[in-house]
Amino acid sequence: MIDDDGYRPNVGIVICNRQGQVLWARRHGQHSWQFPQGGINPGETPEQAMYRELFEEVGLSRKNVRVLASSRNWLRYKLPKRLVRWDTKPVCIGQKQRWFLLQLIGNDTDINMQCSNVPELDGWLWVSYWYPVRQVVSFKRDVYRRVMKEFATTVIAMHAITNNRR
């Protein structure tokens, strides 16, 4: 499903732990890392797509996470010309994404990258909050910067509440 401007609707997922770190995932068989993300199927809401992708990519369900926030707007990135599949119709020139910020309320052992017949991710680690902005592939960097800036106050507040409970 490609929109009239050539963008594929997609969800992006930032999962944080109680320490305010974020889950950083390695693309299957590659050396590139990113947040879990995936397309929105016809008839699916962004939230439904988020929960489906959450399970397919990292093996987590609703009971393992708490939704803390979602992006106010769709955020877009264009694919580099070398990655555009010009032979498909309609041509997809990039992704438009609705982002979700989740807190892992389960355990690290709940994370399982093998829940799909064709896993898209094959490794993960917890990293500092701003680390992904510097490390993601260059064409996604602006979207990552914008979404992390939007979610920062929520993560800071969540981390402060967690620390006060100790």
TrEMBL record:
Taxonomic superkingdom: Bacteria
Sequence motif: Nudix box, positions: 38-59
CDD domains according to UniProt: NUDIX_Ap4A_hydrolase_plant_like
Cofactor: Mg(2+); Mn(2+); a divalent metal cation
KW Hydrolase (keyword) present: yes
GO molecular-function terms, A-Z: mRNA 5'-diphosphatase activity
InterPro entries: Nudix_hydrolase, NUDIX_hydrolase-like_dom_sf, NUDIX_hydrolase_CS, NUDIX_hydrolase_dom, RppH
A GO CC annotation given for this chain: cytoplasm
One GO biological process term: mRNA catabolic process
Gene3D superfamilies listed in its UniProt record: Nucleoside Triphosphate Pyrophosphohydrolase (3.90.79.10)
Keywords from the named record: Hydrolase
Segments forming domain Nudix hydrolase: 6-149
Pfam families registered for this protein in UniProt: NUDIX (PF00293)
Broad enzyme group: hydrolase
EC number: 3.6.1.-
NCBIfam families reported in the protein's UniProt record: PRK00714.1-1 (NF001934), PRK00714.1-4 (NF001937), PRK00714.1-5 (NF001938)
Family as reported in the entry's similarity comment: Belongs to the Nudix hydrolase family. RppH subfamily.
Function noted in UniProt: Accelerates the degradation of transcripts by removing pyrophosphate from the 5'-end of triphosphorylated RNA, leading to a more labile monophosphorylated state that can stimulate subsequent ribonuclease cleavage.
Protein name in the entry: RNA pyrophosphohydrolase
Source organism (scientific name): Candidatus Fukatsuia symbiotica
Source organism phylogeny: Bacteria, Pseudomonadati, Pseudomonadota, Gammaproteobacteria, Enterobacterales
